[in-house]
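Lab notebook, entry 314. We have the chain sequence and a SMILES string for zinc ion, and the next step in the workflow is to get a structural model of the bound complex before anyone spends time on docking refinements. Request logged below.

Task: model protein plus zinc ion, output structure tokens.
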Amino acid sequence: MNRLKIDDCPVCKSKQSECYISTNALMHKVNQEEYRFKKCMDCESVFLENPVPENVLDDYYTDNYLPYKGDEAWGKFKSFVAKSQEQLDTRRMKIVANCIKNKKSFTILDVGCGNPSFLVKVQKELNAECTGIDFSDNGWKDKSYENLTLIKTTISDFNPNMKFDIITLWHYLEHDYHLEETVEKLQNFLNTDGQLIIEVPNYKSITAQFQKQFWQGWHSPRHLTLFSKNGFLRLFNQDKWTLVKYCQYGTLDAFTLWWLGKMEKKKCHWAGSMEQEFWPLVFLKIVTFPFFLFEKVFPMGIQLIIFKKNTFHS
Ligand SMILES: [Zn+2]
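Result returned:
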């Protein structure tokens, strides 16, 4: 298959890197495709050396891709899964609420919004003017969302006629093919003092070390970059951005990421129903509960970082 070749670190442009790990295509049909990740010796981000061209990515968002199927994949247990999605949206909404503090109204852009349940919650609970963008409209085309502006576009093609107080990127940035350009566009999209909330997988976490090539944070070939904290600080240049907060945990619970890796290892038939996996999952959740209690102490799989756009004085 036709592949691209990335030599320099996409985060800091360093030419010094070493082989880190190789995986098959994950959350996909059984395959022998090889994806090689390299670790930048400079900023310690890890990047995919041989990604597929952007225009063939659709081949990896099929029935095997669980997030697109949402709670429907869980058959008679779908209401439990819908409930956990709602809890996830609530955790995300609270982070936004914390960023905007006492503002009566504000504008928010969610990049890679998919099914816009998070924006629905923000609109309802925080009275925000909400915009969501995604390269695919699969997440919303069959429903009507009167109070949201939803646009099928990429960041590079998006030219909004307004500025935003908050931009959220929940598991988006690791997919991005044009990091430098994206960061510049995000800077332009934000209002003065606007904030950027980013959540991505953490390859330095315990689940990544433990699950190796099956860890779902690699998500090959969909994920191109796994960021280190240092990488973030290089990409979001301190002249233009101020670090507000960095956490070695996020809103997506680390158990879910770990469980997906466990399913990968046992060669899960992703395109099939997940119904028979429900009770084993509940059992695992209970058994591992004491371990994942330490999510806020040790890095378990997810990281969250918030930047504020600097105000320029001329
Ligand atoms: Zn680097």
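Notes for the group: The mean pLDDT is 94. Worth checking against the assay data. The chain has one domain: 66-309.
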